[in-house]
Amino acid sequence: MGTDAHDPREGARAFGNYIRSLRQNFYGRGRGKSLRQLAQEAGIPPSVLSRGERGILDLRRPAYIERLAPALGVPTTVMKRVAHLVTPEDVVYFRTLRGVGGPWARLQQAVERMRAAPREVVESVASYAEFLLSRWEQERVQRKTG
Prior knowledge:
Largest sheet: none
Helix content: 55-70%
Number of domains: 1
CATH class: Mainly Alpha
Number of helices: 8
Mean pLDDT: 76
Shape: globular
CATH architecture: Orthogonal Bundle
Distance between the termini: 52 Å
Strand content: under 5%
CATH topology: 434 Repressor (Amino-terminal Domain)
């Protein structure tokens, strides 16, 4: 029961942490959807989602991803790539960046770490960053006009 990156349970746990992070920060940092709300929107029983977020059940199956991605505002293709690329080490690393500098400093550190990453990893992270920036811009415009 080690932390072997090739252990499917570790991959399921890492992806579950990713889903939880998206859910908990859906409306901005620390402002998210409840587990029940996401479960209802995605058409997944709350018990299944809870076990998936904890890595007890593997949410990386296409049927789950195709339901979760739209409810979390993530393109399905991006989430499918992340489902197979995120590792437990990635989750640990990104958690350590929370208190280091501002968001741009953390982003720069993450980019530096990815220099040797495969092209598809960089592409999926870049498309997700573009998506987040467009959502942030929409929210900024809504705050100004609302």
